[in-house]
């Protein structure tokens, strides 16, 4: 049996493990109007997981597509793990996303019918230590929509500043 300090250390370790964001696509929220968000598992090799734990991945220019009823993440960059030798992975290989069939159907109905896009927002480790990808159904913004979004964001920031100074 463990002592009380061991249990509190384990609880603390679990808190730090929850939702460790590895890579984030901050540009997606600017370029797209984000709709429904899904959390998907990702099929990785061992060296990819180790490289993700180092926190050196990018999903800025990646996208999700369907191939024979499966969701695939393309162009995401997970660098090679330096300590691995000949068993290393290819940095930009297509990676299968693990979703339920009805979720995949919902994604591709939105893409086919409504002209939406499926965009990865971030890669993170959940509470159990499993790598997950947060993907969203999104609609592309025009240049004038982007300018309007910036104006609204600036106004909200100024409004917060004024309210904080007054009260």
Please describe what this structure looks like.
- With 167 residues, the protein is α+β, with helices and mostly antiparallel strands.
- It has a single domain (12-141), classed as Small Protein B, Chain: A.
- The protein contains five helices and seven strands; from the N terminus they run αβαβαβββαββα.
- The chain has helices at 4-17, 26-31, 46-53, 101-114, 143-166, and strands at 20-24, 32-42, 63-67, 70-74, 95-98, 117-125, 131-140.
- Strands 1-6-7-2-5-4-3 form a seven-stranded antiparallel beta sheet.
- A hairpin with a 2-residue loop joins strand 3 and strand 4 (70-74).
- The longest helix is centred in the last third of the chain and has 24 residues, at 143-166.
- It starts with a helix and ends with a helix.
- The mean pLDDT is 84.
- Belongs to the SmpB family.
- This is SsrA-binding protein.
- It holds the Pfam family SmpB.
Query: Can you give the mean pLDDT?
Result: 84
- Might you state the CATH topology name? Small Protein B, Chain: A
Provide the helix percentage: 25-40%
Which residues form runs of ≥5 with pLDDT under 50?
Answer: none
Strand order of the largest sheet: 1-6-7-2-5-4-3
Q: Whole-number radius of gyration? A: 20 Å
Number of strands: 7
Helix-strand sequence: HEHEHEEEHEEH
The number of distinct structural domains comes to 1
Give the biggest sheet: 7 strands, antiparallel
CATH architecture: Beta Barrel
Assembly state of the chains shown: single chain
CATH homolog superfamily: Small protein B
| Coarse structural class | alpha+beta
Quick one: overall form?
Answer: globular
Report the span from N to C terminus. 53 Å
Question: How many separate helices?
Answer: 5
Q: What proportion of the residues form beta strands (DSSP E)?
A: 25-35%
- CATH level 1 class label: Mainly Beta
């Amino acid at each position: 049996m463990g002592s009380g300090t061991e249990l509190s250390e384990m609880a603390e370790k679990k808190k730090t493990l929850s939702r460790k964001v590895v890579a984030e696509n901050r540009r997606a929220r600017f370029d797209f109007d984000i709709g429904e968000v899904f959390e998907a598992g990702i099929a990785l090799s061992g060296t990819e997981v180790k490289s993700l734990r180092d926190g050196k991945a990018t999903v800025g220019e990646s996208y999700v597509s369907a191939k024979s009823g499966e969701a695939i993440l393309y162009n995401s960059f997970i660098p090679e793990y330096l300590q691995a030798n000949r068993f290393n992975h290819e940095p930009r290989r297509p990676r299968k996303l693990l979703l339920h069939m009805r979720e995949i159907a919902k994604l591709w109905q939105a893409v086919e019918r409504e002209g939406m896009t499926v965009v990865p927002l971030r890669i993170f480790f959940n509470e159990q230590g499993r790598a997950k990808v947060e993907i969203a159904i999104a609609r592309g913004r025009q240049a004038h929509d982007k300018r309007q979004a910036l104006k609204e964001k600036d106004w909200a920031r100024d409004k917060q500043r004024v309210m904080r100074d007054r009260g």
